[in-house]
Amino acid sequence: MNKQKIVILGGGYGGLQTVVKLQKSLSPNEAEIILVNNHPYHYETTWLHEAAAGTLQPERVRYSIEDIIDQRKVQFVQDTVEKIIPEEKKVQLGTRELSYDYLVVALGAEAETFGIKGLKEHAFTISNLDSARKIKEHIEYVFSTYHSDGRNTDEQLSIVVGGAGFTGIEFLGELVNRIPKLCDTYQIKRENVKVYCIEAAPTVLPGFDPELVKYAKSVLEKKGVEFLIGTPIKECTKEGVLVDQGNGETKLIKANTVVWAAGVRGNSVIEKSGFENVRARVAVDSYLRAPGYDDVFIIGDCSAVINKETNRPYPPTAQIAMQQGKLVAKNLKLLLQGKKDLETFVFDNKGTVCSLGEDDAVGIVFGKKITGFKASFMKKVIDNRSLFLIGGTSLVLKKGKLKLF
């Protein structure tokens, strides 16, 4: 009797959690498990803003996939996913084709530009480890050449962050902590560095608790961030960004550095593969399966799970992706055992914390609002917990944020 083949696409939070749970619960005789990822490493997406600002070295953000998987039970394939053909139960990779009995799609997100002209050409995104490294290196280059390239203008040092959601705010928190150090290193006056946060929505951290929003905005303003709220970006150019001032008028905010952090969409492979989707996110059923395909599970940024209280999808976070991975692994084991009664997914929201730099944050944990050092402490606990759930104590000791006091 042939073993069932489980193919998992993506080595992010959801994909790795699925693999870890499967390799613990299945013997090599029960299933053939294949993990596909385009890099030989996993990177902590929720730490990318630190790598981009330069407050955390990029190498700290990643760890080897082969250090996590049990290679007696899981085959790792480093390749790029091009397209899924669900009718044929096949996946087209860059260099080969894989068949499957069960497929788990956990391909992560891509930056959403909303069709804004010039963003792809002139703005950075905090979308992966390479893009974060480019932002860090660009900012360091701008500061290091300020006195030597002949321009020596404030616009050369100006930084625009597009988006005041979690990614934008967390990046700003790290950035404004690092700028004084860069100024000291390169003998630049702090007042010469302008930092703008531009958000189309009427508030910072849309949908978050208003009291915590006020706290976060105040902290960042005191450190030099100028907020332009309710101000859509119309275009990004070599000189900076054009913003909508209303009444048909626009204004150019000059900046040598533009970082776009105003939204994500699912992976474009979802669209290429013909799944029903909105912005490359699939409204999965209660078992996290794609509509019409009982053998395809979709989790993480590529899935949309509706919050019945708001009738809107839950935001795509590491927390929900890891819970999805855990459930999918459990349901796959049930399917391999010939059982049809699968478990349904219920998101257990343990809270959300938004970092404002090394020693400050805002959040809601177990229903309680927290700020300052207490929130920052909880953020580090959450970061360490995600490492523990994937790689246990050894991974926490190797990569964790252990400076808790």
Automatic annotation (TrEMBL):
The UniProt GO MF terms for this protein read: NAD(P)H dehydrogenase (quinone) activity
Kindly state which keywords UniProt assigns to this record, in alphabetical order.
FAD, Flavoprotein, Oxidoreductase
Cross-referenced InterPro entries, in alphabetical order?
A: FAD/NAD-bd_sf, FAD/NAD-binding_dom, NADH-Q_oxidoreductase
GO BP term, example: aerobic electron transport chain
Domain FAD/NAD(P)-binding as annotated: residue spans: 5-325
Cofactor dependency: FAD
Q: Does the keyword Transcription regulation apply?
A: no
What family is this protein classified in? Belongs to the NADH dehydrogenase family.
- Know the name of this protein? NAD(P)/FAD-dependent oxidoreductase
